[in-house]
Amino acid sequence: MSDELLEDARITAMGLFVEAFTGLNARLSVQLAEHGLGNVDFEVLVRLSRSPGGELRMTDLAAQTGLSTSGVTRVVDRLERDGLAMRRACPTDRRGSFTVVTPAGVAKMHAVLPGHVALIDEWFTGRLAPDALDSMLTSLRTIRDAVRPGATSGIHPAPAPRAAA
Predict the structure, then answer these.
(1) Where does the HTH marR-type domain lie (predicted)?
(2) How many domains does the chain fold into?
């Protein structure tokens, strides 16, 4: 093995990305736990809340989150048990079903998001100049679309990035 590969900027980029993600995730996880949510529960609620009508087909939810169908079923079971989401049969496909965020789920998001956004601003986006944030959003979407092509299943295209105020 060449020592040049050990010093390759691509290895450095990946390492920095992983370190930044795990550090941010640790800080954000504490805040979510204070509201009785795990990371996956929060991700599902965010995706439902940001979707038209507050709902997604179970298959689209699995594609967006990267969870298996059984994994999505377990998360939705938990959210249903807690009154944060519910299932609704698909009127055009009896094999399909939707997961819908409930009013209690929306209320939970309203309780969680102010502190969550404040932490994101403190430890992530607030540390970047507006043009750097726009560039990073574009770059992350390019990478995401390549490695997780189903990540936007069931939704409309994302709006163009905007600079933070």
Answers:
(1) 2-145
(2) 1
CATH number of the domain residue 132 falls in: 1.10.10.10
Digit-by-digit pLDDT tens for the chain (165 residues) are 678 888 899 999 999 999 999 999 999 999 999 999 999 999 999 999 999 999 999 989 999 998 998 999 999 999 999 999 999 988 887 788 899 999 999 999 999 999 999 999 999 999 999 999 999 999 999 999 999 888 888 775 544 555 554
Q: For residue 24, give the nearest of 152, 110, 113, 121 by alpha carbon.
A: 121
Q: Rounded to 5 degrees, what are φ and ψ at 88?
A: -140, 130
DSSP 92: S
Residue 154 in any domain: the answer is no
